[in-house]
Request: fold
Amino acid sequence: MAAVAAVVPGAVALDRQDDDHRNKCKCKPPVKEAHWPGGEPPENPLFSPVVTFGNLVFLSGIGAHFDGDITSHTEHVLNELERNLEAVGSSMEKVLKVNVYLNSLDDYDGMNAVYLGRFGKRPGVRTTIAAAAGIPGDSLVEIDCIAAI
Reply:
């Protein structure tokens, strides 16, 4: 209990410092904005494909829903990620975090062969898993990411 009590006052002090900074510099708090292909959301969206918040962009998982192998699916997904990032003023080089979902870990090496170098010389962190029940829409790979703008 004592350790927790020691942490909380520090957190409160940092919050006060942030508030003081915001008041002095007249900073506006970040705003969540959803971005849609074509500009308009569908009538009842289940989720947003791209969301910006301040200087961050969050991309929903993108899959490849066509017949093909892991190479063609990974290439398609990375091209779509790049297109979506550039549409909001970011780039592959500004990606901070990537999640890769494979239909099968047997495709790990094939996905990596296409993935290598696509995020610049200093790629962000990455997690890769095989989805136990598969990926919706029969894609062999799905990738989402968080990037700076």
Remarks:
- The chain has a mean pLDDT of 87.
- The CA atoms of residues 93 and 120 lie 5 Å apart.
- The two ends are 40 Å apart (CA to CA).
